[in-house]
Amino acid sequence: MSEVKESSPSYYFPGDDVKLSNVIEQGTVRLGPGLVHQKHDHEDKIKVSRPGILHQGVKNTVLVDTRMKRYIPAMNDQVIGQITSRFAEGYRVDIGSAHSAQLNALAFENVTRKSKPNLTVGSLVYARVSLADRDMEPELECLDAATGKASGFGELKEGYMITGLSLSHCRKLLSPQNALLQALGTYVPFEIAVGMNGRVWTHSETIPTTILISNCIKQSEFLNDDEQVQLVKSMVKNL
Amino acid sequence: MSSKLMSMKFMQKARGIDPRQTEEELSKPIVTDEHWSLKKAPDAPSNKSACKFEYESSYGSLISESEDKGNTQETDGPAVAGRASFGLFNKELEGNKKESAENEENDEEQESDAPYKMEGLETTERERRNQERLSKMVRGKSSTQVKPKNDGHKKRKATDMDRDIISLDTEKSEATAKPKKKKNKSKKKKN
């Protein structure tokens, strides 16, 4: 995550208090996932509800980065889904959550009723969660929120999808200067799509290189930057 | 007469009683000895907090915000994080990169101190793409020296050997095409 300040990463357990002095007190404090605000004896307390490392981000944002494997849909998440069925108005997509998501057939760029993209059952899409509620089925869109353009969303053709990754690992892969991906990119040309639901799609020229990329990603979760680069070099050497 | 009839407005007006006044008296709060209140103590802590707390339930919104404010100049490619392409695999995704930046990256990678044979593989893949460009240019234009700097002249002799050993899936057409082009370049160097 690009907003990480790793001066002294501290691990918090559920029930721990976050000291307000650590957090900048200027008006509104934004609590990200994993934090709850409680009033105790007329004192403001921020309690941790999920175990993880505390991060401070832009705009007085505080959040806890938990190592979870279960995906719970949230707004504006970029996810990789697999189409399980199609009906008149759109598609039913499996994103790894408790409920299947719905993708409207018209939620693509430059689409009219007559020129809808024709996605087959079993194909992969990179989409953004536009509606996420615990009581309703999540809804997806293949459009950017602000611009309304595709900008990377859409069908993912060919390639291979890696599943079973932890959500925190995927969030690390999202940062533009990720050491593992940059190192892989110097040796092997490939393209990649990282989903926040614990899935990563990758495509490269040959099957051995695709396997190399997926193995590197799976094995690099607990390694730091230098070790990741070493892993890439050793795997590329054995190719 | 019934009490309901007596309480109607026209009956009260006939008696000389103003119905509005009676309503006001009834609605006024009755303060008797039973009614009590706390004396205002200014030292007592109030329930209002010093700062407001908002909840943000998704990591996605936080990541997109940090991109907008942080590294807009450094990120290349599409606005969406999570979709990336390396080594010109997907030209649409990498189309936003400037060519000068790409050449700089190529130079940096060539100068790196990795002693592995894999470096030969890296240059060959770029060479392969450059030679695809060249094959179109050689027939047309005479000056092919304009092509980008990533021709490792020093490494070219070694790369051929290394490439044959390491990568088992090189296409035979490439192997045959390469020596032809090499001869052209060596002749131009001599000239």
Write up this protein.
The complex is a heterodimer of chains A (239) and B (191). Chain A is built from 4 helices and 16 strands. Chain A has 239 residues and is of the alpha+beta class. In chain A, a hairpin with a 5-residue loop joins strand 15 and strand 16. Chain B has 191 residues and is mostly helical. Chain B has helices spanning 3-7, 9-15, 19-27, 59-69, 91-94, 99-111, 118-140, 153-166, 172-190, and strands spanning 52-55, 83-86. In chain B, helix 7 (118-140) packs across helix 8 (153-166). The longest helix of chain B has 23 residues, at 118-140. Chain B is elongated, with a radius of gyration of 42 Å. The relative contact order of chain B is 0.06. Residues 71-78, 97-123, 142-156 and 162-182 of chain B have low confidence and may be disordered. Chains A and B meet through strand 3, strand 11, helix 2, strand 15 and helix 4 of A and strand 1, helix 4, strand 2 and helix 7 of B.
Give the helices and strands, then pairings.
The complex is a heterodimer of chains A (239) and B (191).
Chain A lengths: L10 E2 L4 E2 L9 E4 L3 E6 L2 E6 L3 E5 L4 E5 L12 E10 L2 E5 L6 E4 L19 E8 L7 E3 L12 E3 L3 E3 L4 H7 L5 H9 L2 E5 L5 E5 L2 H13 L5 H13 L2
Parallel strand pairs in A: 3-7, 10-12
Antiparallel strand pairs in A: 1-6, 2-5, 4-5, 6-7, 8-9, 8-11, 9-10, 11-12, 11-13, 14-16, 15-16
Helix pairs in contact in A: 2-4
Chain B lengths: L2 H5 L1 H7 L3 H9 L24 E4 L3 H11 L13 E4 L4 H4 L4 H13 L6 H23 L12 H14 L5 H19 L1
GO biological process, one term (chain B): maturation of 5.8S rRNA
InterPro entries (chain B): MPP6
Protein name (chain B): Nuclear exosome-associated RNA binding protein Mpp6
Number of helices in the DSSP assignment of chain B: 9
Oligomer: heterodimer
Mean pLDDT of chain B: 61
For the biggest β-sheet of chain A, the strand order reads: 8-9-10-12-11
The chain pair forming the largest interface, with residue counts per chain, is: A-B, 67 and 53 residues
The biggest sheet of chain B, with number of strands, parallel, antiparallel or mixed sense and barrel status, is: none
- Taken as a percent bin, the fraction of beta residues of chain A is 25-35%
Helix content of chain B: 40-55%
If you compute it from the alpha carbons, what radius of gyration of chain B comes out, rounded to the nearest whole angstrom? 42 Å
What is the global morphology of chain A?
globular
Distance between the termini of chain B: 131 Å
Number of E strands of chain A: 16
As a whole number of angstroms, the C-alpha radius of gyration of chain A is 20 Å
| Sequence stretches where pLDDT stays below 50 over 5 or more residues of chain A | 1-6
Shape of chain B: elongated
Domain K Homology (chain A): 159-206
Keywords (chain A): Cytoplasm, Exosome, Nucleus, RNA-binding, rRNA processing
Protein name (chain A): Ribosomal RNA-processing protein 40
Subcellular location (chain A): Cytoplasm; Nucleus, Nucleolus
